Amino acid sequence: MRVFLTGATGFIGSAIIPELLSAGHQVTGLARSDAAATTLAAAGVQVHRGALDDVASLQRGAAAADGVIHTAFIHDFMDMAAAGRTDRAAIAAFGAALVGSGRPLVVTSGTAHLPGGRSSTEDDAPDANGPARHRISSEEATLDLAGRGVRACLIRLPPSVHGDGDHGFVPALIGIARAKGLSAYVGDGMNRWPAVHRLDAARLFRLALEQGVAGARYHGIADPGVPVRDIAEVIGRRLGLPVASRSAQDAAGHFGWLATFIALDRPASSALTRQRLGWKPVHAGLLADLDRPAYFTA
Ligand SMILES: NC(=O)c1ccc[n+]([C@@H]2O[C@H](COP(=O)([O-])OP(=O)(O)OC[C@H]3O[C@@H](n4cnc5c(N)ncnc54)[C@H](OP(=O)(O)O)[C@@H]3O)[C@@H](O)[C@H]2O)c1
């Protein structure tokens, strides 16, 4: 398949490239800068110049492809509503090119907006009052296309997609621990984050492209729920720092922008995804992956 991949220079997209190429697909990556174009060309990827806010460029990229994988996202934690609007407009642009074609569109979502306190499944609808609400309209836009002749599906990723090159929540926690001289969690720290290795996630994107069913929601979850206290303990031990609890009231002062996520208890299951796509995560779990020098050399 000729696959149009957005976010091809990103942490997850750059792992999807070799996964697709080694399965015999051709990849065209969205590049918004000369540096991105150079990186993609070196990875054996055809370059498509454009950007998320240039919907015509997205439409052209999708029109020229047999399928689309969308992982690009504007990670502006100060204005996630705007990032969500851009995401929804991008999905509409793909839809304009793909409606009625039966071609696949695989869109990245998350699990943080699913109901909390119990293990969420693929069949769960978003919690309109939960965090990461910006994902909800993107999910709706994707599922709407599934009813209009696009083999559109979602991959919900957990708060920690980990592995070499990680620059997500876990490295942010390491940075905060270094800055504060303390590796902290909130309350008893037994709230759980699901997680997946980026290479396992990349394989799931390929499987969804190849076999995904229109309207499906897939979960890229390997660890169903890692207690945040366990994450803090590995960080504290590796950095030689004390590990301690912070109250919910003190969380904003300690964790800054990460405060919204640090106390989340959003375990999630991928049983249906494994069954439906034959996906089986094989790489290290979060705690084993984190407990390596690579996470602490910065
Ligand atoms: N990493 C995680 O732990 C995690 C967890 C849950 C969900 N997710 C989701 O998974 C997806 C991929 O995440 P990631 O970790 O791979 O992100 P990332 O490493 O931050 O990469 C973001 C990608 O989006 C591109 N991008 C950003 N703004 C753009 C714009 N205006 N126009 C075109 N491209 C733009 C970037 O291109 P440049 O190279 O040009 O900047 C880059 O390729 C996102 O939806 C993210 O929210 C990630």
Provide the low-confidence segments as ranges: none
Report strand order across the widest sheet.
Answer: 3-2-1-4-5-6-10
| Proportion of residues in β-strands | 15-25%
Bound molecules: NADP nicotinamide-adenine-dinucleotide phosphate
Cα-based radius of gyration, to the nearest Å? 19 Å
CATH class of the largest domain: Alpha Beta
Can you identify the CATH superfamily of the largest domain? NAD(P)-binding Rossmann-like Domain
Query: What is the terminal-to-terminal distance?
Result: 38 Å
Order of helices and strands: EHEHEHEHEHEEHEEHEEHEHHHH
The tally of strands reads 12
Q: Work out the helicity level.
A: 25-40%
CATH architecture annotation of the largest domain = 3-Layer(aba) Sandwich
CATH third-tier fold name of the largest domain: Rossmann fold
The overall average pLDDT, rounded, is: 96
- Characterize the largest beta sheet: strand count, sense, and whether it forms a barrel: 7 strands, parallel
What is the 3D shape? globular
Count of individual domains:
2
The class by helix and strand makeup works out as: alpha/beta
Task: Offer a quick outline of the entry.
The chain contains 12 helices and 12 strands.
Question: Could you please describe the fold and organization of this structure?
Answer:
The protein is α/β, with parallel strands linked by helices and 298 residues long. The protein folds into two domains: 2-160 and 195-222, NAD(P)-binding Rossmann-like Domain (Rossmann fold, 3-Layer(aba) Sandwich); 163-194 and 224-266 and 284-296, UDP-galactose 4-epimerase, domain 1, CATH 3.90.25. The chain has helices at 13-22, 34-42, 55-63, 80-98, 134-146, 169-180, 198-211, 228-239, 251-255, 259-262, 271-277, 286-290, and strands at residues 2-6, 26-31, 46-49, 67-70, 104-110, 151-157, 160-162, 183-186, 192-197, 217-219, 223-227, 243-246. A seven-stranded parallel β-sheet has the order 3-2-1-4-5-6-10, sandwiched between helices. Helix 6 packs across helix 8 (228-239). The termini are far apart.
